[in-house]
Design goal:
Distance between the termini: 26 Å
CATH class: Alpha Beta
Mean pLDDT: 87
Number of domains: 1
């Protein structure tokens, strides 16, 4: 795939009223998120009614990440049921490479996209939305029936404004539109204070959705605020937990290990219910290895999949 880009820059389009939490998240985004680009001839589908606006997107960063990902041949993930990717676009090639390889691994018509609620915005432990998402590659449609069922079961509350300004989800949707254009979306962001009981209950609600055409994508960044050497040690501990499906250990970790223990724990418990217990590591890196100063605190990245 080769990308031809029209002139476009980082965009913020406000389609929802902003509360203090949303404004705070935008401020955090400007501080910490390099954003991300466009497929020639992509249809721009008009719809009646509200949509999530295109906010976290930078065409140049996306194009560079895509070129880097395409520098290597696709490596399919046979039997993949769940994939872990970053949401930090400094590691955009890891995001796009993973989604490209997922697309090469099966016919995925539904994606459950799960990530952190960075500032615990909104009024529920798990937040979703049944609105379509604007992207440079056309609309990403929600799977409204699956989202409705999660709401009926009490596992998620629809709060579109919160989802629009959470880059862990909103920043990944354009990549899904580009690489998995036929997939409908079930977006979920999780507060940081979910308990093991909450995680298990959510996993029990997600497992029935994981048919042969559905995959979970967990957009999670790993060790924060430590040196590169310290981050590598924390990543070794995290990888041990990922490989042993030790969700209790994951839930005991803080930002020094990962930014959303509940998201990864929920993914792991869902995989346990599906007997998809084998974790295949693809990449483990950090921001210093991708061009940031080795002396600065780093963010680390783990990509891999369960089958």
């Amino acid at each position: 795939m080769r990308l031809a880009l029209p002139a476009r820059s980082f965009t913020i389009a406000v389609g929802w009223p902003l509360g203090a939490a949303a404004l705070a998240l935008i401020a955090l985004t400007f501080l910490f998120l390099p954003s991300t680009p466009e497929r020639t001839g992509a249809a721009s589908t008009a719809v009646a009614g509200p949509t999530h606006p295109l906010i976290f997107f930078d065409d140049q960063a996306f194009a560079q990440a895509l070129a880097s990902a395409e520098a290597t041949d696709p490596t399919p993930m046979p039997g993949a049921r769940a994939v872990i990717v970053p949401h930090h676009w400094l590691a955009g090639h890891l995001i796009l490479g993973s989604l490209r390889d997922l697309a090469a691994s099966g016919d995925y018509r539904r994606i459950i996209l799960i990530g952190p609620n960075h500032i615990n915005a909104g009024g529920a432990a798990v937040i979703t939305s049944d609105l379509p998402w604007q992207t440079p590659f056309g609309l990403v449609e929600p799977d409204r029936e699956a989202i409705r069922q999660l709401a009926i079961d009490g596992q998620a509350r629809s709060e579109p404004a919160v989802l629009s300004y959470e880059h862990a989800v909103a920043g990944i949707v354009p990549a899904i539109a580009y690489l998995l254009p036929d997939a409908r979306l079930v977006p979920l962001i999780l507060r940081s204070d979910l308990t093991s009981t909450d995680v298990n209950t959510l996993a029990a609600a997600l497992a029935p959705l994981l048919d042969g055409e559905t995959a979970i994508i967990a957009a999670v960044d790993f060790s924060h605020y430590l040196s590169a050497q310290q981050a590598r040690q924390r990543d070794r501990e995290t990888l041990e937990a990922l490989q042993s499906l030790d969700s209790s250990r994951i839930l005991s970790f803080g930002d020094e290990h990962l930014d959303s223990p509940p998201a990864i724990a929920a993914l792991m418990e869902t995989m346990r219910l599906l007997s998809a217990t084998e974790f295949e590591l693809r990449e483990n890196s950090n921001s210093s290895e991708l061009g940031d100063s080795a002396l600065a605190p780093v963010t680390s990245y783990i990509t891999g999949y369960y089958r």
